[in-house]
Write a structure and sequence with these properties.
The protein is mainly α. It has twelve helices and four strands.
């Protein structure tokens, strides 16, 4: 199996996941502050001291929820997800907005995260529920706005680009707004402190590759590949779980740019002439792709693929989480505090999510 695929897909959903916590393991108390659509975690404060000597409260199993197309691995309940970081960033942008507006600059509003659980669907090995397959085929779940912006779908009526608030600001106004990055209230929601790499990071992320290379993982992919073959499809050897011909991104074609371009760029780059790929205008989510995606879902259902693979990945994650439990708890504690502050700040300042008067 391709060793970079798992890392790539995990990073897409957990790009910010460099800090972890024991408090996210068992309880149903949602302390993440994701009331604006960020993916919620299952939290439960554990009793006793931290560390590998006391892991009785640590849930190291995989939770599979077909209704929301979600798979909750130990890392998903412990790591700071990209959605959680984005939620904190909404408070960062809100504080910047209010900072600039307090100085007379009509800064753009912050925005809330969409409240649609399917946007956080587990897509590591392609779609595995009918709802996701019908809505997105093989494309990574995302908002309609993102689908249009990424040229994955095209609205029947072409939409004109809206006039952006930021485009109407003067250079002096922009400078004031950017200086707000140094405002203490804004800096309080700086997520860079969440990014503290350590050996636990590789230990968790390597679990995907380990699971794919495990004899049980290899057997699972063999079963899935056989089902694909029975239905006239072929497993993509570069992206296990997907099929050859799965359209995951915009449909493009090669074009050669020979006019209004330059070939005299500086050494090492700068030339603009050459072969490029441009969108064809064809939707990547069409009847054919949806039908193929639904067939792959049926194959996965027939062998209980998602639950079996999730269980295997969880098993591979467990040793690393247990080994670095002390570090995991300490880092996650800071993240939970920041999430709580972001939730409180957003609730107290709804005006930051509204257009300037």
């Amino acid at each position: 199996m391709n060793t970079h695929t798992a890392t790539h897909r995990l990073a897409a959903t957990l790009a910010a996941a460099l800090a972890v916590s024991l408090s996210a393991c068992v309880s149903t108390d949602d302390s993440s502050g994701n009331d604006d659509g960020a993916a919620s975690r299952t939290n439960n404060p554990a009793s006793g001291t931290s560390g590998s000597s006391n892991l009785s409260g640590l849930d190291l199993t995989a939770h599979v929820d077909p209704e929301n197309a979600s798979v909750s691995l130990p890392s998903d309940r412990l790591l700071v997800s990209a959605d959680e970081e984005e939620f904190i960033s909404t408070a960062y942008r809100a504080a910047q907005t209010l900072c600039a507006r307090a100085q007379g600059v009509p800064w753009e509003r912050s925005w809330r995260l969409p409240d649609d659980p399917i946007l956080n669907a587990w897509n590591q090995y392609g779609p595995w529920t009918a709802e996701v397959a019908q809505r997105f085929a093989f494309v990574e779940p995302q908002t309609e706005t993102s689908l249009i912006r990424n040229r994955i779908i095209f609205p029947e009526t072409p939409q004109s680009e809206p006039t952006l608030v930021m485009d109407m600001l003067t250079e002096d106004q922009l400078a004031i707004g950017h200086e707000c990055h140094n405002d203490p209230q804004v800096k309080e929601f700086d997520t860079s402190e969440l990014h503290q790499p350590g050996p636990w990071y590789d230990a968790v992320f390597d679990a995907y590759d380990q699971a794919e290379k495990d004899p049980r993982g290899l057997q699972l992919f063999e079963e899935l590949s056989a089902c694909y073959a029975d239905n006239g499809m072929e497993m993509d050897p570069e992206q296990p779980g997907f099929i050859v011909g799965a359209q995951q991104y915009a449909v493009t074609r090669e074009v050669e740019l020979t006019e209004n371009c330059r070939t005299d760029g500086p050494a090492g780059g700068g030339d603009t002439c050459g072969i490029y790929r441009e969108p064809t205008g064809e939707s990547a989510i069409n009847e054919e792709q949806i039908a193929l995606a639904l067939t792959t879902v049926q194959c996965k259902d027939s062998i209980n693929f998602t639950q079996r693979m999730a269980d295997l990945i969880a098993e591979k994650q467990a040793p690393g989480i247990e080994k670095y439990a002390d570090e995991i708890i300490a880092l996650r504690t800071n993240a939970d505090e920041l999430l709580a502050k972001a939730k409180e700040y957003n609730a107290a300042h709804p005006e930051a999510f509204e257009d300037a008067e």
